[in-house]
Amino acid sequence: MTAGFLSILIPIIAGFLLLRLSFEYDGEYAFEWFFYAIGLGYGLLSYAMFLLGLIGARYSPLTITVVFAVVVCIALVLLFRFRGVTPPKPGRSISEKLSGWRLYLALFIAAWVLVRVGFVFCESFSRPIFTWDAVSNWSAGAKLFYYDRGLVLNPGDENFFGMGYRVFLGHPLHTILLQVWTALWVGRFSEVYVKAWSFFYYIGVLGVFYYAVKREAGTFYAFLALFFLSSVPLLTYHGMVSYSDLPLSFYALASTVCFFRYTRTGNMRLLSLSSIFLAMGCFTKNEGLFFFIAVGFALLLFLLLEKKPLRRSLIHFLLPFALVIGPWFVFKYAYGFGFGHSDAGSGFNWLSDPTYGATAGRGVHWEIFGVFFKRFFMEANFNLIFPFWLFVTVFYIRKVFKTDVRYLYTITLSVIAMFLFVYLTLEVTAVTENTGVNRNALTYIPLIFFTTAVLCVRQYLPSSAAPGKACIQD
Amino acid sequence: MSPIKIIGITWLLVLFSAGLCSSSFAEEYYGEFNDSGDIQRWQSLNVDSSYIEGGSLVLKSSGSPRLISPGNLRITQSESVLSLRVKSSNDADATLIFQTGGGAIILKKFRLYPGDYSEYLVYVGDVIPKDDYVVALGLDFARNASVSVDYIRAIDPSFLQSFAAVWEGFWEPDRITVRTVNFVTTPALGRSSFLVPLYVLTGLLSILFFIYYLRKKNTPRQSVAKGVTLAFFAAAFLFAMRMDYNWLYIWSDDIRALSGKTETQKLEALYADRQEMDGFFGFIALIKSSVPEGAKIRPAVRPPHDPLAIVAKYYLLPLKTSAKAGYLWVYEGDNASFDPAQGVLRRGDDIELRRLRLLKAFNAGAAVYEDLGVK
Q: What ipTM does the predicted assembly reach?
C-alpha cells in the first residue's frame, strides 16, 4: 500500500518541482501547480518508461526512477537555457472575500463536490478493473508488459509489442505504462491499485478547471462552475475506471488553459507548457492529435490577429511538442503502426465502418447527425452543458467574435469538427451504437465548460477583461 | 391576483383532475397464486424447486429462475402498469419479457430489492406497441436464489397510479455495468428522457425570471440572458441531484458488496450477474497452479475471439496464451467430453483433439489438458 502511494506521489512531486522552478511564485495560486503537476509528472514518467523500453532495458522501480530523474533534470536544463518572458507581476485580483449568502452557498457547493470526490476515491480504490473496454484496450497490454518487464520488442516474439493482448498496436502507451509503474512498485499486478492514476487525473481536471475559472471570475463563480463540471456523470465514472479518455481530458484542458493564459500574458513558458501537455495527450490517445491541431490553429489565429511575431512563438510551440512526442511518432512510423481502428489493425477503413452493417453502402454517413445531437441533448451523460453552451453562444455571438473567447471557440469547435469528420467517414458505429461518441466528448467537455464560463464572465463581468489584454492575474 | 394564489388554485385543479382520473381504473389478474396450489398454467424454468406456500409461488434456484405465463394473455397498451408483489433474496435486476401478438419480443428491466414482500409498480406503457398487444409474459429473476411471487397484475391505471409507476421508475437507481464506460443510463419519466421535463422547466423558469428581471428595470435582452441562464442553473442543479442519487446508491451497494474482500472475491461479486462466470476465477487459479512455469496455454475448443476466451487470456497472465501452446483448457458450456483411454476430446460426436492427457479437472465441464502432440 505504501509502495503504491509512493508510486503515485513520486511523479507528482517531480512535476510540482519542475513547475515551481519554472514559474514565479504566485501566492494565491501556489496550490494550482499541484494539479498541473499530476499530468506533467505522469506524462514525463511514461515518456521515460517508453524510452527505457525502446532500448530494451528491463523495467524495475529503480531503473525507471533513475531514467525518470534524468528526464526531469534534462527538462530543468532546457528550462534554464531557454528562459521565457518573465510573467508580469500579479495584477488586480478579483478573488473576492466571500461573505453572506455567497459564503454559505460556496461552502454548500464545496461540501457537495467533496462528497463526489470522496465517492470517486472510494470506488477507485476498491473496484478492480472491470470494464471490458478498459481491459482489452489498455490493461491487457499493461499486464503483459509488467510480467515481461519491458515492451516485448524482440522481433521474433509472438507477443511483439503486446500482440495478441493489445487490440490495436497503434494505441499510445501512456496509461499502459502508468499501470506497469504502479504494479512494479506494488510488486504484483493489482487489479485495484494499478489504475490509481484515474482518480488523480479526475481531481487534476477539477483542480485545473477551478483555478482557471477563478482567474477569470473569482472564487464564488469558480465554485459554481466546478459544481456543474463535477456533476457530469461520465466524468465521475471515468474517475474510477482505467480508461484513457480522462487523462486526455486533463491534457486537453491543461494545454488550452496554458495557451489561453499565454495569449493574455505573452509568457512563452506557458505556451511551451501547453505544447508539452498536447504532446502528452498524443501519447495518451491517438485523438490527442486533434487537440494539437486545434491549439495550433488557435495559436496561428492569435498571432495573425494580434500581429505578433510568428517565429519565436512557433518555436516555443513546436519544439517542446516534437521533443516529447517525437520518439513515439518515429517508433510508430518505423513499425507501421497506424492511428485507426480498422478490422485489419490500426489502419483506416475510409467511408465504410465494417461494423456498421452489411447493407450500409460506402460514403459519408450524414444520417448520424440526428443521433449525434440526440446523444448530447437527450441523454444524461453531460448534464445540460450542451444546450446551455448553444444558448450562450448564439445569444452572445458578438462577444465570441470580439473578445479573446474566440481562441477558446476555435479550439473547441475545431476539435468537435475533427471528431465529426471521423464519425462521418470512418467510425459510424461510435455514434449509432453509442460507444465512442460520449467518451470522445468527455475529452472536450471540460473545454466546453471553460469556454462557457469565460464567455459568461466576459458578458456578466465586463470589467474582467478587454480584448487581447492581460488582466486580473498572471 | 397574486402569484401565490395562482399557484394554489392551479395545484387544487391538478389534484381535482387527478382525483377524477383515479376513480376509473381496472385491474386484470394474470398471476394470482393462492393456497389452492393452482399456478394457472404458469411455468417455472431454471429452478431447483417451485411450490406454493402462503399464497405465493416460491422459486428456488441455483441459477436465474424464470416464470413464464400461459400464451393467451391480452395486455394492451392501456394496461400500462404492471403491479407485482414479490419477495426476493438477492439485490438483482429482474427482466420482464413480453411476447406480442405480432411476434416481437420486448424486454424491460426493473430492480428487485432483497427482504420481505414489496409491491413493484412497473410502467410498461413505454414498451408495449400501440397497435399490438402482449400474448405472453416472462419474468427473469437474474441470479436470485429464492423468489416468492404473490401476484402479477396488469392495471389500466388511474392518473395517480400511472404517476406512481412512472415516479418509481424514475428513481430506480442505476448500476455500473460494462457499458457504463460509454454512457450512463438516462433516467426516464415514462416514455421520455427526464431531460424533456427539465427543458420544460427551463422554459417555464426562464419566463418567470424574465418577468422578474424586466420588473427590476433590466433591458429585455438582459432579462432574457439572465432569466435563461438562471433557469438552466436550476435545471442543471436538479439534474445533478438525480444523478448523484445514483452514485450514492452505487456507493452504498459497493460498500456492502466489496469491502473486506480479496481482489478475486471482488471480481466474483462484480460478475455475479453473469452465470457463466460462476467458479470462473477458481478455475483460473487451478490452471495457474497446474501448468508448469514457462509453458503456454490455449482454449481447446473456443475460438480466440470468444468473449470468455479473451477474459481468460487476461486473467491467466503471467501464464501466456498461444496458438501453439502445449496445454489446453475446457470450460463449462464448451460441451466437450474427454475419453481418457484414447486421449480424445470430443464435442458432440466430433473429435476435436487427439493425444491429450488430463492434467487436472475442475468439475465435470472444466478441466486442463496437456497436448502430447506439442513439443
A: 0.91
